[in-house]
Input
Amino acid sequence: MEVLIVESDPDLGLLWKRHLQRQGAACVTLVQNQEDAVLALYDRSYDIIVLDLVIETGSALAVADFASYRRPQARVIFVTNTSFFSDGSIFAHSPNACAYVQSGTPPEDLAAMVEHYAALR
Output
């Protein structure tokens, strides 16, 4: 299982990365902005992308859109600490979206979701 995490908060991103590695993910790449996410998507084929909707530099929707073009098999789990798209409309805006959760979701729950959606790929 190969996972790309796009998270501006380095502490939160590292927490998720370490948990996924302990759960057996073969490759977990952590980036903090749109530019680095796009470069990572050029380099590697990911099963799952954990993508914060509110990244500090760039646009999360642009990352998801690029992923749907460059790596159409990659599923996106959107995370956020806001109420943006709380109505579920994210699934209409991003065809590769598979889940939408709060940033405060326990890392073990997020890891279980990553494993579940990677298996469906």
Remarks:
- The mean pLDDT is 90.
- The beta strands are 2-6, 27-31, 48-52, 75-80, 97-102.
